[in-house]
Amino acid sequence: MRMEARASRFQSGSVVQKLLSTTILSLERARCYQPQSPVLPGIRPASGVISVNAERPESMTRQFRSFPFRWVLPSLQLLACFVVLWPVRNRLLVEAVQSIHSYAPAKARSERLQDSERVYILPSLTPEQQQELDARVKFAELRMKVPLLLNFPVLVAQLPYILLNPAKREWIPKGMFPATWRALSWPFAGLVFWWFSGRGIEALRAACRAVVHPRVGRMEATLAAVLFCFGLVALIGILTSTPDDRKNVQFLTLVAGAVLWGCLAAVTIVARFLQWRIPKRRVTPETPAGHLPG
Known about the structure:
This protein is an all-alpha fold. The protein is built from 13 helices and no strands. The N terminus and C terminus are likely disordered.
């Protein structure tokens, strides 16, 4: 009798252990797996049920690695301006020193002018030498236009000051030509705009993979829209310009800079639009099987 009672209790205990293990295993499977059902039009998914696909963009954002255009483009722009302006460095240095001396007190400035008064006798040049000198001067002026072309948004940022200034011109230090001031300051002032442009390229490359990184803000989108409008105006201006205008180096430089930054702004605008469309293309939370609206 005792043996039979022990056997019956052992059997009942093993049955209970099997039931508990089966229940725990089924609960773990139910937690790891959720049945997927097609989302029918007009059916609102149940609250509290989140699809696995809804977490995909965040994981893709963590795994996505983009080329650092925001740092490479400003560095390349600064390097390009340095290389182009290096042959005319003496001219830039002389005008910078003269501008610094122009802010000195009047007495010290007059004494410095008296000490530096000298008479230079220039030799006469042959027509060939004069032609060669004119070509060098023209080439040097073209080098001074490169910062204006690459950093056109700096001019756009100064438009409010230019319009409110009675002289209708940008601020320039004393004793310095406008081209020299632009060549010295615009490569550094344009770093911010090249950084924004690099972010736009990174955002476009990520948006093509349905990843919002980095997010294009409203300020960047507004600046891109303004530059894009200037690019369109420049295209219209070059199409309606006269032959004399097309020979003007300053005009061609402004048009080229506006077109260049209009194209870069278009990249940022497209990236902003794709980022706006990405949440709408994501898979919505799914409705569990058997749950239909009444």
